[in-house]
Fold:
Amino acid sequence: MNIAQIGVGYWGPNLLRNLVSNTNVKLTTVVDLSEERRQFVESHYPSVQTTDNVEDIINNPEIEAVVISTPVKTHYDLAIKALNAGKHILVEKPMATTTEEVLKIGKISERKNLVAMVGHTFLFNSAVQYVKTLIDAGELGTIRYIYSQRLNLGRIRNDVDALWNLAPHDISIIQYWLDELEPVHVMRNGMDYVQNGIDDVVFMNIEYPGSILANIHVSWLDPHKIRRMTVVGSEKMVVYDDIAENKITIYDKGIDRIAALGQNMDFDDPRSFSFNHRSGDIIIPEIKWVEPLKTEIAHFVDCIINGTKCLTNVTHAAKVVKILEQSS
Structure:
């Protein structure tokens, strides 16, 4: 299957490397406006053609799929062009800037029977998938709340704020873990310290049905590099730390209510309870590591060739963007 890639900026080289290494596809062409980036491709992958004109791949009937890794504001127009030309698409996160745009992408892809996938790479992370199996199996009990931190003194964007740049990762993971629950309420609080109108730090709160709370803290203006998510259940708690050697730590900890004998010999009196602070084993499971992006690319190809249901399809993409919109 012939594939083309649009954009070889910050994340583009990682996509490029995994596309080239996938034996089920042939990366034929890369598009980038920058001569320097095109030269980068030519020097590392001589067999791949380069161009600065998107129409060269849009009008090429031999190209069956397109990977879009460009600034967020260009995602929608490029996705629509590729779909209208009969090409499957993998679009870097977020798929578009509004829910309406994502749904339009979905309608065209459905009408033309084409795969439209968003690059929420963390859903292909084996550690994230392991937590999902714990939740689905009831190992954690009733989910009470989730909180995440995605922080760094790092790359500052001027096309999107810290929320739209970083939070799609955490929102997509939480949606995946909670079986795509529809939030009850979304609220954000952020501040622009470096560039006017572009928040450098954001705290987002999401309330889900069943009294589940989620808090997302993102910043590119922080002294610590942190990529950590904590899930607190009624039975156990789990920490997923993406940059730690041990990605998953399970804590058999919690607080249990114990009925106490009341003054009237009544165990059912709601006031007659004591509390047991439970602290059991700490488990660090072995997680087999496979590069998530490699798995993501393989999944995209599998969806096209074998008709496998797409994990990060338009429905998932739209819910993530909707939560981002609700917080604006």
